Amino acid sequence: MNEEAAVTALSALAQEARLRVFRALVGAAHEGMTPSALSAMLDIPGSTLSFHLKELVHAGLVGVERDGRNLYYRPALGRMNELLSYLTDHCCMGKSCASSGLQRRATC
To answer: Could you tell me the sign of the dihedral formed by the alpha carbons of 36, 42, 44, 49, in that order?
Structure first.
């Protein structure tokens, strides 16, 4: 991941509703969620949710798949892990982070 992609991803998550949506999708993992399920769970109006989902898709943090009449949104876990790796790339100035516990928190 390059700096521009990291800034785009972080910008997408730097908004309360989008962060809540992303965390809900991470909880659903590979099953994904429909917009109506997300809207009901998070109490976000459909039009507002649509805007936030579009931003998360644009940032590459969420993918969308059509199944018949339904859209299923899923977290792009690989992209999320790329972002985490980018953020922790130079952790502890190249030394092992094992003693500080940082390495455990940065992995899924």
So the answer is: negative
Please give the Cα distance from 32 to 39 (Å, whole number): 13
Round to whole Å and give the CA distance between 12 and 96. Answer: 30
Number of residues in the chain: 108
Domain boundaries, given as residue ranges, for the chain: 3-106
Is-contact 52 15, C-beta < 8 A? yes
* d(C-alpha 59, C-alpha 54), whole Å: 9
Model confidence pTM above 0.85: no
Pick among 3.90.226.10, 3.10.310.10, 1.10.3210.10, 1.10.10.10: CATH of 3-106 = 1.10.10.10
Q: Which residues are CB-contacts of 38 (< 8 A; sequence separation ≥ 6)? A: 21, 24, 25, 44, 49, 53, 73
Taking 70 as the pLDDT cut, the residues of the chain under it are: 94, 96-108
Alpha-carbon Rg for the chain, nearest whole angstrom, is 16
